[in-house]
């Protein structure tokens, strides 16, 4: 599809098909083009027309708050129950102002917000052809619902997110940090997606403000800030049940392979596969669900000037969640496996966390 002189790539069909159990679908279809009156897509500008089900919010309903750090957060009040925030309706409404709207995450118990709050994250492309991230939160108050909204270009999302969420929660803003972010383009990235039906490989060559995306059929020049949204759709990173805890398991690659190749019926079976009899009941049960529901595993690694910048390794288990596999295991935990064992750390992550990592390609 052509838009504003820029091609939006549509790579070969991906998703969770072919896994032992099919998880949630890959999210909403592309946002429709509706009326183009007041525009909601100005990054760092005033969001207009964001709707909670049954309560469309007009531009005059928003009060814009400048945090002093260049980030703008808008607030509005709704005389309605917070349950009115339905991601499908919000996604549809955003499609009136943005193209290719995709829901990324829905958090029904967001940290730092009152009980009963809901927070939704979307990514999309605005009318100027920029990749945009938009978070909407709704929290119950004494006489209705308090709604907040903030936007960022995808390249700034990782930098802006913590500051914006502190402001949304009514806490003092902190200066944005970039310490953990790669140092820009050019870069070379390789995505490997493994499923029961086979393995797909995609290369991404960053050059200036464009990335050549090649799925084996030839490179497609793509704006760098479109890449995170493209990967969200390609990898079917859609709203799904979120982690119930931040517990992680330290194990080794061979044990993880055995787990993913098994079909443990319960927590005890997962303990047996991992040879980890001391695993807590809840953690072992989650690992059993992971093994039963695994649909794909993908890894994205990118380098600059021959030096590794970052690696994301995700096991997608559908309704059993997204699981991150990390090699940066703290020495204290790694020592428990012995000197001759390569340690890895396995833990649940939410779609918003995966999206944040993907946006670093555009940072």
Give a verbal description of the structure.
Residues 1-50 are annotated as: Disordered. Residues 11-24 have a biased composition (Basic residues). The chain has 363 residues and is an alpha+beta fold. The protein folds into 2 domains: 31-179, Protein Transport Mog1p, Chain A; 183-363, no CATH class. The chain is 20% helix and 33% strand. It contains 8 helices and 19 strands. The chain has a 9-stranded antiparallel beta sheet with strand order 14-13-12-11-16-17-18-19-15. α5 packs across α6. The model is unreliable at 1-56 and 179-184 (pLDDT under 50).
Output the number of helix runs: 8
Mean pLDDT figure: 77
- For the termini, the CA-CA separation is 25 Å
Relative strand content: 25-35%
Order of helices and strands: EEEEEEHEEEEHEEEEHEHHHEEEHEH
Helix content: 10-25%
- Low-pLDDT parts are 1-56, 179-184
Largest sheet, strands/sense/barrel: 9 strands, antiparallel
Which structural category do the helix and sheet elements fall into? Answer: alpha+beta
Count of DSSP E strands? 19
Radius of gyration, CA atoms, in whole angstroms: 21 Å
| Form type | globular
Number of domains: 2
Strand order across the biggest sheet? Answer: 14-13-12-11-16-17-18-19-15
């Amino acid at each position: 599809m052509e838009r504003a002189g820029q091609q939006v790539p549509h790579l070969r069909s991906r998703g969770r098909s072919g896994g032992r159990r099919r998880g949630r679908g890959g999210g909403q279809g592309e946002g429709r083009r509706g009326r183009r009156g007041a525009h909601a897509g100005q990054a760092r500008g005033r969001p207009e027309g964001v709707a909670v089900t049954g309560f469309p919010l007009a531009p005059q309903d928003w009060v814009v708050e400048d945090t002093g750090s260049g980030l703008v957060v808008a607030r509005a009040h709704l005389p309605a129950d917070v349950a009115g925030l339905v991601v499908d309706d919000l996604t549809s409404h955003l499609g009136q102002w943005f193209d290719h709207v995709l829901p990324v995450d829905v958090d029904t118990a967001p940290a730092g917000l009152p009980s009963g709050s809901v927070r939704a994250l979307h990514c999309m492309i605005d009318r100027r052809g920029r990749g945009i991230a938009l978070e909407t939160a709704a929290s119950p108050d004494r006489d209705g619902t308090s709604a907040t909204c903030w936007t960022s270009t995808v390249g700034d999302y990782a930098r802006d997110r913590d500051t914006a969420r502190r402001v949304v929660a009514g806490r003092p803003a902190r200066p944005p940090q970039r310490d953990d972010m790669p140092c820009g383009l050019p870069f070379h990235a390789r995505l490997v997606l493994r499923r029961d039906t086979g393995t797909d490989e995609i290369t991404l060559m960053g050059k200036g403000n464009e990335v050549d995306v090649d799925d084996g059929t030839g490179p497609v020049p793509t704006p760098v800030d479109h890449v995170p949204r493209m990967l969200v759709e390609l990898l079917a990173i859609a709203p799904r049940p979120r982690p119930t805890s931040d517990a992680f398991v330290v194990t080794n690659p061979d044990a993880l392979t055995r787990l993913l190749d098994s079909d443990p019926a319960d927590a005890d079976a997962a303990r047996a596969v991992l040879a980890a009899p001391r695993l807590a009941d809840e953690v072992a049960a989650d690992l059993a669900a992971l093994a039963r529901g695994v649909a794909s595993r993908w890894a994205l690694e990118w380098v600059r000037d021959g030096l590794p910048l970052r690696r994301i390794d995700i096991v997608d288990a559908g309704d059993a969640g997204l699981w991150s596999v990390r090699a940066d295991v703290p020495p204290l935990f790694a020592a428990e496996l012995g000197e001759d064992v390569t340690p890895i750390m396995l833990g649940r992550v939410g779609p918003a966390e995966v999206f944040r990592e993907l946006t670093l390609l555009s940072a």
